[in-house]
């Protein structure tokens, strides 16, 4: 670094990283290098995404599909009701199509379509299993409880039982078939 004709050395010992606190000095001169969102510090400071199991991803896909089906069925049934109101309702005298505020008034099929669309969405709303998420979470909590209370999942050498800290990925445990470890014995304690 050169300032006012004088050269100052810069080396890795003189670096202040993000969130560092400077003490025991009144001021410093600094040079800002490697800034922005593409730096290593910024890339590592973002919050990691939450892990989702295959069952949760599949369940979301099914719910979205059922919601699209709900919209499609409601739209088609409302369209059929509006067409029936326009074409056939005048013949059905017992539904009182002559009343202007009636849902079956053949002169206003758009009103009948909109009202029937909301009615169909309410009626067919049971197609989407809202309690499915609650049921899956309850099963996960029970699985974590069973893991914590399992006497066969106990290490007698260290005296530690199994401890399920989270219930997010219980169903993925059965998918593990290979454990990779480095040569330092991190997982095996050199045994």
Automatic annotation (TrEMBL):
<dbReference type="GO" id="GO:0005886">
    <property type="term" value="C:plasma membrane"/>
</dbReference>
<keyword id="KW-0472">Membrane</keyword>
<keyword id="KW-0812">Transmembrane</keyword>
<dbReference type="GO" id="GO:0045332">
    <property type="term" value="P:phospholipid translocation"/>
</dbReference>
<dbReference type="InterPro" id="IPR023298">
    <property type="entry name" value="ATPase_P-typ_TM_dom_sf"/>
</dbReference>
<keyword id="KW-1133">Transmembrane helix</keyword>
<protein>
    <submittedName>
        <fullName>Phospholipid-transporting ATPase 6</fullName>
    </submittedName>
</protein>
<feature type="transmembrane region" description="Helical">
    <location>
        <begin position="110"/>
        <end position="134"/>
    </location>
</feature>
<feature type="transmembrane region" description="Helical">
    <location>
        <begin position="61"/>
        <end position="90"/>
    </location>
</feature>
<dbReference type="InterPro" id="IPR018303">
    <property type="entry name" value="ATPase_P-typ_P_site"/>
</dbReference>
<dbReference type="GO" id="GO:0140326">
    <property type="term" value="F:ATPase-coupled intramembrane lipid transporter activity"/>
</dbReference>
């Amino acid at each position: 670094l050169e300032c006012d004709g004088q050269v100052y050395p810069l080396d890795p010992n003189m670096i202040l990283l993000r969130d560092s606190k400077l003490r025991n000095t009144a001021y410093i001169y600094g040079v800002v290098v490697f800034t922005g969102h593409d730096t290593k510090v910024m890339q590592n400071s973002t919050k990691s995404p939450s892990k989702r199991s295959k069952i949760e991803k599949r369940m979301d896909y099914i719910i979205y599909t059922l919601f699209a089906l709900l919209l499609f069925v409601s739209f088609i049934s409302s369209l059929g009701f509006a067409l029936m109101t326009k074409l056939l309702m005048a013949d059905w005298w017992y539904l009182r199509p002559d009343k202007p505020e009636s849902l079956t008034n053949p002169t206003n099929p758009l009103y009948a379509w909109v009202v029937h669309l909301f009615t169909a969405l309410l009626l067919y709303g049971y197609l989407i299993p809202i309690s499915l998420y609650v049921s899956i979470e309850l099963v996960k909590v029970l699985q974590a409880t069973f893991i914590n209370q399992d006497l066969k999942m106990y290490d007698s050498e260290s005296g530690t039982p199994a401890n399920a800290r989270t219930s997010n990925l219980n169903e993925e445990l059965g998918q593990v078939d290979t454990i990779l470890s480095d040569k330092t014995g991190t997982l095996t304690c050199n045994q």
